[in-house]
Amino acid sequence: MTPEPAPTVSQLLAFYLEAGVDCALADEPIDRLAEPEAPAAVKAAVASGEASPPRPVRMPQAAFVAPTAEPSPAPDAAIASAREAARSAASLEVLRDLLEKFDGCALKSTATRLVFADGNPKARIMFVGEAPGRDEDIEGLPFVGRSGKLLDRMIAAIGLDRTKVYIANVIPWRPPGDRTPTPQETQICLPFIQRQIELVDPDILVTLGNPSTQTLLSTGEGIMKTRGRWFEYDTGTRIIRAMATFHPAYLLRSPSYKRLAWQDLRAIAKALPQTTQ
Ligand code: URA
Fold it and tell me: What is the pLDDT, as a whole number, of residue 5?
């Protein structure tokens, strides 16, 4: 049997990209399968003939587990500390600082930076997506990639632009390789986005896509059922009208749903005149 030729570097990179590995976590690669370096004293003893070279030892399984930058607190503790931190924030600036310092979510250690928000903190309408992607992670702003361009067009369709809306995500750090955030990560980040909504205090909240809708509007129904419907979002101090619609990334993949999204936007536009500043 003829052996398969070894892949070229560009084939290997294409394979990684396809598998979602599109960023480096460190400047140098780490060979986690390498034998551990022998201590200097052992090396010297081997060189002088006083000792024989150590026999290779099989590393225990746990030694191959990639270390995380910092151990994150247990989820319950992390959720409790997120709640306490978020509750203590009296302004969006303080909330942002608290998130910058918060170490309870492991996504922080793989993301390049925090993606807090974009737009006008005094806006009467707020859009919330799921989590930043690659472009957002680079720029530090939500919805700046391809789906962001479509979101801009959706916002323009209701006669507004980024200076008149506020945009954020449920999760403020990019999950590695754009994987779906785990339920635990979502629960840890939830108190921060809830406080962010409370501090912006918009008249209309628009949840973009299933994860944001299900998380913020406490529904188990899918986006096909929830889109275009008005919900009540309770901040604890006030009820805000909330509308679910399709995520722009979904609309890019399934353009035939744009017609329904535009219906949702028309309903939002109708509710806007009395509320937009
Ligand atoms: N998708 C999201 O949900 N949020 C972003 O900021 C970008 C893409």
Answer: 79
* Residue 13 falls inside a structural domain: no
- Establish if 255 belongs to a structural domain: yes
The rounded Å distance from CA 232 to ligand 1 centre is 23
Position 26 in a domain: no
- Cα–Cα distances (Å) from 272 to 79, 83, 167, 276, in that order, read 35, 32, 17, 6
- Cβ of 152 less than 6 Å from ligand 1: no
Mutate to test the pocket of ligand 1, among 113, 115, 118, 130 (most ligand atoms within 8 A of CB): 130
The pTM assigned to this predicted structure is 0.79
Structural domain of residue 260, as residue ranges? 75-272
* Radius of gyration in angstroms for the set of CA atoms belonging to the chain, rounded to a whole number: 24
Confidence of residue 224 (pLDDT cuts 50, 70, 90): very high
Question: pLDDT per residue over 111-125, tens digit each?
Answer: 999 999 999 999 999
User: Which conformational region is residue 224 in: left (phi greater than 0), alpha (psi within -120 to 50 degrees), or beta?
Assistant: alpha
**Number of structural domains, the chain?**
1
**Mutate which of 118, 246, 247 for ligand 1 pocket (most atoms within 8 A of beta carbon):** 247
Ligand 1 atom closest to residue 115's alpha carbon, by position in its atom list: 6
Task: Tell me the CATH number at 216.
Answer: 3.40.470.10
